[in-house]
Amino acid sequence: MIYEFNCREHGGFLVEQPMLSEHKAKCPVCEVEGQRQYSTFKVIWAGSAYRPDGSLRQDKDYAILKG
């Protein structure tokens, strides 16, 4: 699962963690522990959650969600 965290100095960052983990993560820039952000549930269909260019896929990338 991919979880979003927030650093007071550097903003949001994403971390891939197991669902049953403690959900703690350090900012990749300053190594200060980030605050986990709770947001609406997003469904990730089979396949990678990332585009070939390394950016995170959006709902519009999945044909089944295009309508």
Account of the protein in words:
This protein has 67 residues and is mainly beta. The chain has one domain (1-67). Helices cover 0% and strands 22% of the residues. It has a three-stranded antiparallel sheet with strand order 2-1-3, with no helix packed on it. A hairpin with a 3-residue loop joins β1 (2-7) and β2. The radius of gyration is 14 Å and the shape is globular.
Tell me briefly what this model is:
This protein is mainly β and 67 residues long.
Radius of gyration over all CA atoms, rounded: 14 Å
Q: Calculate the terminal CA-CA distance, rounded to whole Å.
A: 25 Å
Task: Note the beta-strand portion.
Answer: 15-25%
The ordered H/E elements are: EEE
Strand order of the largest sheet: 2-1-3
Q: What overall geometry do the principal axes of the alpha carbons give?
A: globular
- Low-confidence region ranges: none
* Number of helices, counting only DSSP H or I runs of 4 residues or more: 0
Q: Mean pLDDT, nearest integer?
A: 78
